[in-house]
Amino acid sequence: MSDQTNALLDRLTSVLDVFDLSFLISGGSGVAAILCSMHAAGYLDGMDSQPVWLLAIGLLLVTYVLGLLCFTVGRSLRMSGWFVYRPESMESHLLGELQNFGVTLEGVAPELVVPDIAKTRRDGSEPLYNLCWARIRHSESSAASLRLLTRYWVLAATCDGIAASLLIWYASLFYLVMNAPNVSPVLQIGLGIIGLLATRKLIALLFRESIRCKINQIREIASTMAILQAVEKR
């Protein structure tokens, strides 16, 4: 990948990272699905009489909020393992990658003593993962790795959000099919089943890509921690 392409991806990631604008992608997909079904049902008649600026602001707010909801729902569905096999916990995976790179837990934060640092807490927090992120953020020499880690996070969040927005698309299209004239009930049910299977397949593909980004993020964290530990030993 050329330096120009890397620079373009870094800029795009930086833009999406401001106020978590990656939510606008999944939110826009969900809003488009809702507007499509509302337009077909005639619920948008008369909307052109409203001020354009008011519609724009309202659409932006709804898109962002819906994107946030899509991200939350998508991440929960991916972690549940309903659509794709859920891999080992992030803490266990990170611990294994750190060991592969020769990084000890003492080397992660020698000045801190955190009980059970490599175990996921009951509240869902992951102290080892969070601590490694903090070490990388506060290291000036790991700025390039931080940009790459942020890119992986944005891509994973975008995949999770889009996956959830596909459920909105399915519901909207299924609503249109069920209310379409001159369509037999058998055909409606058949199209609904086909659409459900296709939606599930697409969601599984997006979740696999999200997991791949998470795995790459873990490996980048472990390799960066190994470099930081090697520099500290000099």
Polypeptide structure, described:
It is a single chain. By secondary structure, the protein is an all-alpha fold. It is 74% helix and 0% strand. The protein contains eight helices and no strands. It has helices spanning 3-17, 23-41, 52-80, 90-100, 105-108, 127-137, 143-178, 185-233. Helix 2 crosses helix 3 (52-80), helix 2 runs parallel beside helix 7 and helix 6 (127-137) packs across helix 8. The longest helix is centred in the last third of the chain and has 49 residues, at 185-233. The two termini are 32 Å apart.
Measured between the Cα atoms of the first and last residue, the distance is 32 Å
Strand content: under 5%
* Helicity range: over 70%
Category by helix and strand content: mainly alpha
Instruction: State the helix count.
Output: 8
What's a concise summary of this model?
The protein is mainly alpha-helical and 234 residues long. The protein has helices spanning 3-17, 23-41, 52-80, 90-100, 105-108, 127-137, 143-178, 185-233.
